Amino acid sequence: MAAARAIGVVVAASLCVLALSGAARAASPSPSAAPIASPSVAPIASPSVAPTASPSVAPTASPAVPPPASPDPALVLHVPVLMYHLVGLPGEVPSALPNLVVSPTTFDAHMRALHDAGWHTITAADLATYLAAGTRPPARSFVVTIDDGYADGYTHALPILEAYGFVATFYVVAGRVGGSAHTLSWPQVRELLAAGMDIGNHTVSHPALTAASDWDLGWQIRRAQEIVLRQTGYAMTTLAYPAGDFDQRVEDAVETAGLGLGFTTRPGALETWAGRFACPRIRVSPGTGARSLVGTLEGFADD
Ligand SMILES: [Zn+2]
Q1: Three-class secondary structure of residue 10 per DSSP
Q2: From ligand 1's centre to the CA of 202, what distance in Å?
Q3: Residue 44 included in any domain
Q4: First-to-final CA distance of the chain
Q5: Of 100, 264, 265, 262, which Cα lies nearest the Cα of 182?
Q6: For ligand 1, a single-atom ion, which residues have Cβ within 5 Å?
Q7: How many domains does the chain have?
Q8: Segments forming the whole domain that contains residue 186
Q9: Predicted confidence (pLDDT) per residue in 215-231, tens digit
């Protein structure tokens, strides 16, 4: 238990560090799209702080006074979170389900089209920070998530992301990193982090969490945090449920572990403080056209 508490402290502390770096990244691509409250000063609060009625949108407050860094229960975000799995060539990973494999050419077309339409990325960790601070990310922000920790995230997806100045969150299965030629290695994970990418929790072994015992459930989440922290020095702040399998007990376990967001496979784009452990995502398939994807995101561009 002492170890678990210690990890929680590390996670909470690192969230503040992440907040600053994430805000700096998020602010740079689109300085003209100013959020209501500046994220550069806001993210201080831990997401574990109980939500209170926040005066964060206070038109009478002097601009010189930093806005309160606390969750705003009334804040409703529609930041699109794209869900990819493999970005590779058909057959490159023989065991991969074909409908999970988006070719590098298609991934490049998606990123180029979104870039050209004025969209830019923040990471899932950034999104958690904005939500915890009760502030809105810059307009036309979206998140790229790549689940399961395949090596093609490094070999194929990373160079394409970098070509457009984009970042992504890679949900790695901590117990499988370095486990085969098709999975990311720890040096690759460290290179992803060095390139400004975010690593997220996808448990130790990708079980169905709703079927796990209470002990296993907690272990799968906390042990994954420990493994990644030990191997990279990075404290993950968000989690994607393996196969989208979650319920209230699983949500509670993610919160107890000190994480800030939980992603499902339910379709949509909606982030609120109350619903932060059941965030939907937009599934991207091999046949998803670039124009269609841009159209989907435009439907969520509410500012
Ligand atoms: Zn998965």
Answers
A1: helix
A2: 7
A3: no
A4: 44
A5: 100
A6: 147-148, 242
A7: 1
A8: 2-10+79-298
A9: 999 999 999 999 999 99
